[in-house]
Design a protein that fits this description.
This protein has 409 residues and is mainly β. Helix content is 7%, strand content 35%.
């Protein structure tokens, strides 16, 4: 087929505007040039500032600038942040600072830069990531005495300078074992209850739900003190004692579970031979709190296990039907398969661990779906019962229990 010169000219005149349009679209799609960052701010309107140059990891921020089309990557201290292209325009990007981005606490040589990389180039912006303040998740003994050494678990334990106990008393000999663990000697003279504060380079950490020295805190079910309005007379089983020779560091009365001899294999007779602690019906939570999520609450107590424990189970029930029980078997989670303590320790059992019976084994089925299902109107018994559900005898068991309470986690 032959084309005349005139026809070729006509074709060129027709397709030239189309090619020019496509070129313009491609140029627009890449933003028209290298990107630039003008400012960064928080997306959360309750925290929003016009512009800022630092944030915590995990924060959602907005990056404002120019020529962000063709976005390929966003990096914080050289760690890529996942981004949603629907939350990015040519002038604005909404992104969450990645939790794994390093800070000066973990790497003193971090770049302290945001980098935005597009098809047309790269923009850099000075931006400092700061760690959150320390956090506290647990204490080895919430009822320790002055002079006792306790372990505090948490997070962001960087450059910790002091630990402050109720009454503004400072702990002694703070030893940071790692970024989530420290040891401290409890100061003498604590006379009040309250939270413990961990003070570090990046702020002050406390946990309002962990009350140190909380002998009279709300939610106490049983402290085994004679005449106590919550408890004192309505109990049976076990051995009530206040001997600090048998269990040093005690706080008044405790209940001791100590069978006279070995507990035979497959022996579930918890009701004899000082193998149980049973407390009459008492309020686990107030009726006004029954609509709270069940996951918000834990059962706590202090325990001192004197003899090495390697089989058998402490069942914790909350009523006579045994519909829901929790299992306390700490020896299962030790490298040696045995468990003992050198003093009193605090145990936390989430209320979600109170479960139905499955395969004829108490406490291994389904948890209650809500507090009302577990607690009725909020009041329930509480019982700690030693059974031997193993095929070998328990050669000897000796442990003391105190300060049974239900608190928020």
């Amino acid at each position: 087929m032959r084309y005349s010169y005139r026809n070729i000219i006509k074709v060129i005149l027709v397709i030239a505007p189309v090619l020019l349009f496509l070129y313009s679209c491609k140029k627009d799609s890449t933003g028209g040039g290298p990107p630039t960052i003008e400012f960064v701010r928080l997306v959360d309107s309750t925290k929003r500032d016009s512009a800022f140059t630092s944030s915590l990891t995990g924060e959602q921020i907005l990056i404002h600038g120019q020529n962000f089309n063709g976005l390929r990557q966003i990096l914080f201290n050289d760690v890529p942040a996942p981004f949603n292209s629907t939350l990015a325009t040519n002038t604005d990007i909404i992104v969450i600072v990645p939790d794994n981005a390093p800070t000066e606490a973990t790497n003193p040589n971090v770049s302290n830069k945001i980098r935005v990389i597009t098809e047309s180039g790269e923009a850099m912006f000075d931006f400092k990531l700061v760690p959150p303040p320390p956090g506290i998740t647990s204490m080895s003994n919430e009822m320790a005495w002055g002079g006792d050494t306790i372990t505090i678990k948490g997070s962001v334990f960087y450059n910790i300078t002091k630990v402050i106990f109720p009454g503004n008393l400072e702990g002694k000999n703070v030893q940071v074992l790692d970024t989530a663990t420290l040891r401290v000697i409890v100061p003498n003279g604590i006379t009040t209850s309250g939270t413990v504060q961990v003070v570090g380079q990046y702020g002050i950490g406390r946990n309002p739900n962990i009350i140190f020295n909380g002998v009279s805190q709300p939610g106490m079910l049983a402290n085994f003190e004679d005449g106590d309005p919550q408890f004192g007379w309505a109990w049976w089983g076990g051995i009530k004692s206040n001997s600090s020779v048998d269990f040093p560091g005690n706080r008044g009365n405790y209940i001791r579970i100590k069978p006279a001899g070995a507990v035979n294999a497959n022996d579930a007779a918890w009701y004899g031979d000082d193998r149980a602690v049973n407390v009459a019906e008492v309020a686990w939570v107030q009726e006004s709190n029954l609509n709270d999520p069940i996951s918000d609450y834990v059962l706590k107590f202090e325990v001192f296990v004197k003899k090495s424990w390697k089989n058998g189970t402490i069942l914790i029930r909350n009523e006579g039907s045994w519909k829901y029980t929790a299992r306390y078997v700490p020896w299962l989670n030790t490298p040696t398969g045995t468990y003992a303590t050198t003093g009193w320790v605090t145990v936390s059992i989430p209320l979600t661990e109170f479960r139905t019976k499955a395969n004829d084994i108490d406490g291994t089925g389904s948890p209650a779906s809500n507090l009302s299902e577990l607690l009725g109107t909020g009041k329930r018994e509480v019982g700690f019962m030693l059974i031997n559900d193993s095929s070998t005898p328990i050669p000897g068991f000796d442990a003391a229990f105190d300060n049974v309470r239900v608190v928020r986690r």
